[in-house]
Amino acid sequence: MTPTPFYFDWQFWSAVAALIALFLSQLPPLHVIFRKAALGCEAFSRMHITHKVGNPNAQWHLIIENTGGRSLRVKGITLTFRKAGGVQFNLPAQSYLRTPDSTDSVMFTPFRLAPGEEWAHIITFFDLFSRDDEKEYRRLESDIRSDILSQKEDPLNKDKLCEANPATVEKLIAFFRRHFKWEHGEYEFELTVITNIEKANINRKFRFSLFETESNELAGYSEMYRIGAGVYWVSSAQPGLIVPVHEK
Predict the structure, then answer these.
(1) Which residues contact 49 (CB under 8 A, 6 or more apart)?
(2) Which tens digit of pLDDT belongs to each residue from 132-183?
(3) What is the pTM of this model?
(4) 3-state secondary structure string, the chain?
(5) Architecture of domain 33-132+159-247
(6) Cα 74 from Cα 108, distance rounded (Å)
(7) What pLDDT digit, counting tens, does each position of 32-69 carry?
(8) What is the C-alpha R_g of the chain?
(9) Domain extents in the chain
(10) CB neighbour burial string for 59-78, b if at least 16 within 10 angstroms, e if fewer
């Protein structure tokens, strides 16, 4: 008796159909597969700004989503600020909070997003000091800390706010003045998200106003450097500002 060819066996074709169905179920829908690389971004309507001895800092909540059909690698995020009639400066993303209520920052590093995946965090933006500025700042910070802590060794000063040597404080304030950027006025800034696929990069423009009283408040933090606040310890009296931002 001649055996029946396997391609006449309905059980064989049922197994093949099941395997094909399983394979297709693991693939994204066709409308996703053929979708081009694209990135979406939702930005919170408020931004926190402050400074570290004049060096500008910003914190902003961003939600970045891969809205295309290809995996994307986000390589960097930068804010470029331009003050009307003033200077321009860049603040790259340096760290972010794991959760909105977290107090610990995680270093910002490139990350990958699969299609449909999103990345949502409060990001801290600031530029690093130059090598010479970093060296100068560390020396001034060390001098102020050592001066104040040496005074604290006296039992009579245990509960007092001791002040550092005025000459050292004046050098630090001069350093602050050279780096302070948050002067009052109208600001435009551009959000740039760089990916491994240039066409998917994001470039969006925003604006905000910084009033004179707000600029003076930020600049006034330097008055507390004499006791070390904002230098080697954080003071609740230096909270920074929340400013409304609007997309252009």
Answers:
(1) 56, 57, 58, 59, 182, 210, 218, 240, 241, 243
(2) 999 999 999 999 999 999 998 888 888 888 999 999 999 999 999 999 999 9
(3) 0.84
(4) CCCCCHHHCHHHHHHHHHHHHHHHHCCCCHHHHCCCCCEEEEECCEEEEEEECCEEEEEEEEEEEECCCCCEEEEEEEEEEEECCCCEEEEEEEEEECCCCCCCEEECCCEEECCCCEEEEEEEEECCCCHHHHHHHHHHHHHHHHHHHHHHCCHHHCCCCCCCCHHHHHHHHHHHHHHCCCCCEEEEEEEEEEECCHHHCEEEEEEEEECHHHHHHHHHHHHHHHHCECCCECCCCCCCEEEECEEC
(5) Sandwich (2.60)
(6) 11
(7) 455 688 999 999 999 999 999 999 999 999 999 999 98
(8) 27
(9) 33-132+159-247
(10) bbbbebbbbbbbebebeebb
